[in-house]
Amino acid sequence: MVAASDAIRNPQQSFSVTTTLIEYRSGKQVDSNVLAVWSKPDSNSGQYRTLVRFTAPARDAGKLMLKSGDDLWFYDPTNQASIRISPEQRLLGQAANGDVVTVNFAREYQAELDGEEEVTDGERKQRHSHKLTLQARSARATYAKVELWLDARDNRPIKAKFHADSGRLLKTAYYRRYQSEMGAERPTETVIIDGLDTNWITVMRFSDYSPRNIPEVWLQRDYLSRFKPE
Amino acid sequence: MKTDSKKKIARRAPLLARIAPIAASTLACIVPVAWAADTPEGDLPPMDAQPSIEASAPTRDWTLVLEAAGLDTKVRDNSRAAHSRASLDFRFDKKLAPQWRMVVAHRIDSFDPLSDSDRRSTVPLLKEAYIGWQPVPEWAAEAGRVNLRLGSAVGYNPTDFFKARAVPTLVSLDPESRRKNRLGSVMLRGESLWESGAASLVLSPRLAAEPSSGRLPAGDSLSRTNGQDRALAILSQRVAGEVQVRGLAYAEQGRSPQFGFDASALLNPATVVYAEWAGGSMATLPNEAAGIDSDTRFRSRAAAGGTYTFPFGLSLTVEAQANEAAPRKGEWQVLRATNPLAWGRALQWAFDCQELPARRSLFVYGQWRDAIVRRFDLSGFVQADEGSARQYWFEARRRFEGFDIALRWQAQRGPAWSRFGAASEQRSAQLIGTLYF
Fold first, then answer.
1. b (16+ CB within 10 A) / e for B158-195
2. How far is CA B83 from the centre of its chain?
3. Which of A78, A84, A205 is the closest to B91 by Cβ?
4. For A118-139, how does the pLDDT look when each residue is reduced to its tens digit (9 = 90+)?
C-alpha cells in the first residue's frame, strides 16, 4: 500500500520536473522560487538523488543544489564554489521542503495500518482513507514518525504529518491537484504547513514532468561546475 | 597595501553622515512588521494561486547584476574619506553545440572619489572566458581563462593554489566577495569523472612577465594570473557516504612542488566539518616575498573547522588557521623595527597572494538567513590573528523582489606590526544597492 502510494507521488524512473515554490505568511504571498529538478532513484536505497537548479528569482538563477541522501552540496557559478552543507543549513529558502516530496516511505519507514478514517483532502473534499503510522527505520531519517492518509480506493496520498523524534509536529503536507503526468495520476501540488507556525504555508507546484536519462556522473560534487543539461 | 590608495580620496564631509539618515529610514521601511493574523491549518491557499515571479521562466544563458555603493572610510591618521562605486557584473554561459560550451564572466567597477582633486577610475575585469568541450559526461576539457577555486575551508584556503594575485580590485573583506571578484587564470584543463570522484590535470602557461611585489598592475592583466608556468593535478573521491577527500600536487616555475589535501564530512544533520592542508619546501613568508630562498625547508599551511546550524537558522563556522611560513608575533615586531621595507613587502605579498601572514589565526563566521523577519539576512565574521590583531565584518541585507539593499561595516585593528594594524583603513561603512536581471 505504501509502495503504491510512493509510485503515485513520484515516477519510479529518472525524471525532470519544474517546481514552483510559493510561500505564504498569514495568507499573504511573501516569496516564490522556480526550480528545475532532476531526480534519479538509487537502485540500492530507493532514495531519490536530486539535482536542483534555481531558475528564478534572478538573484539565485544558475545556482545548484545536489542532494544524495544526507550528502548535500551547494554550487554558485559566480564564485565556482562547491560547498558541503548540512541538511539543517538553509542557504536558499524553502527548497529543503523537497524531502517531503521525494521521501521514499516504503524503503525508509516501517508502516503500520491504524484503521480507516474520513479525512478532508487538500481540495476540501471528504475522502475515505487508510490511516498509517510510519516509524523511521534509521535514526538518521529527517522525520522520526509520519502519519499518512491514503485514499482507500486507489492508495493516492492525501495528507501526511511529519514528526520529530520528540513527537513534535514538524510539517503537515497535503497532496492535491492530481493530473496525468508520466503515465500516472500524480499530485501536482503539495501544500506544506509548518508544524510550529500554521500561518507559514509553502505550496510546491510541479509541472513539465519528463523522463530523463540522468548519468550517474551528474550526481556528485565534481560535476556541479559542468552541469549544463540543455 | 591596496587600502593605501584610499588616502588619495578626497577629505570631504563624511559620506556616512550623509547616507546614515537615508540608510536608517530605508532599513526601517524594509524590515516588515510581524504577521498579526492567525491562519488555522484548514485555510489552504487556493489552487489557482499564482506566484509573484514568472513560473515558466525560461532558463537563461546570462545573468546581469548592477550594484551601486556609497562608502565612508576612516583611515589610520583619523582622517575621513568617501567614495562611491558602481559595478556591472555580467556572466554568459551557453552551450554552443551538444559538446561545446562557452563561458564569459566580466565585471566593470567605476570608483568615484567624490572630490575635485582625484579622478574617477574604471577597472574592467575579464574574470573568465573559456571554451569547454565535453564529448561524453565522463570526460571534459576547457581552454581559456578559468576561475579554478579549490578548498573546503571558508576563511583561508591553503590548497587554493590559483588564488595568488587573483583579486585585482577593491573588494569587501568577506570571503564571498573575494571569491566572486577574482580573476581566472589562462589554462588548459582536462578532467575525467566517475560516479564518486574525478581526476584532473591543469596546465597554466606563463604569458606575461611576473610583476614585482607591490607593483601589481590594476585590472585583469595576464601578469597577475599567468606570470609563471604552473601545473596542478587533482584527485577527488567520495570515500564514504558523506566524506569527500581531494589530493593535489602543484608545480610552479621557480618554486618547489607543493602538495595538498582537503576533506569534508557531514558529522550530523546540523554539522559539517572540514580540513585543508598544503605543504612543501618553501622559504619563510618574508623571504618568499623578497625572492630569497636561503631558509627553505618543508612548511605546512592548514585550515580546519566546522559549521553548525542552530535550530533557529543561524549557521556558525569556527575555523582554525595556521601557516608555518609566517613569522611569529615577536619576529614580526623585530622585522618592522629592523627592516621596515622587508616588513611592508612581506605584508603586501601576503595580501596580494591571499596568504595567511599570521602563524596562527582563528576565524569565526556567522550567516543567518531570514534573521528575525523574512528576507532579512545577517552575516559577519571576526578574524583573530595571534598578537591581538583583529578584523571585523558585518552585513545586514534585505532582499526585495529583484533587488537587495545592504548595510556593511568593517574594521581592522591591532598592533602596528600586524597586518590589521598596518592597514591604512581603520573602519568603513557602506550602503549598497544591488539589482538582479
1. bbbbbbbbbbbbbbbbbbbbbbbbbbbbbbebebebee
2. 22
3. A78
4. 999 998 889 999 999 999 988 7
- Cβ neighbours around A165 below 10 Å, total: 11
Q: Looking at the predicted structure, is the pLDDT value of residue B21 above 60?
A: no
Q: Return the pLDDT at A83.
A: 92
* Cβ-Cβ contacts under 8 Å, A79 against chain B: 149, 176, 179-180
Give the containing element (helix H, strand E) for B419. Answer: helix B419-422
Q: Is the peptide bond before B137 cis (omega within 30 degrees of 0)?
A: no
**pTM value surpassing 0.80:** yes
B48 reaches A (C-beta below 8 A): no
Nearest alpha carbon to residue B437 among A81, A91, A56, A23:
A56
Read off the DSSP letter of residue B32: P
Query: Residue A96: what residue type?
Result: A
Q: Which 107-146 residues of chain A touch chain B by CB within 8 A?
A: 120, 122-124, 140, 142
Using the Cβ of B172 and the Cβ atoms of chain A, whether some distance falls under 8 Å is answered with no
Residue B32 has pLDDT above 70, yes or no: no
Q: Does residue A225 belong to the interface with chain B, where contact is any CB pair within 8 Å?
A: no
**For residue A194, which residues of chain B lie inside 8 Å, CB to CB?**
none
Indicate the length of chain B as a whole number. Answer: 437
Instruction: Chain B: give the shortest CA distance to residue A100, in Å.
Output: 16
Residue A142's φ and ψ, nearest 5 degrees, are -60, -35
Q: Which residues contact B435 (CB under 8 A, 6 or more apart)?
A: B65, B66, B67, B402, B403
Angle formed by the axes of helices B329-338 and B340-352, to 10°? Answer: 130
Average pLDDT, chain B: 86
Residue A147 contacts by C-beta under 8 Å, 6 or more apart in sequence? A131, A132, A133, A134, A160, A161, A163
Please give the Cα distance from B104 to B88 (Å, whole number): 14
Give the chain A residue whose CA is nearest to the CA of B272: A86
Cβ pair A171, A146 in contact under 8 A: no
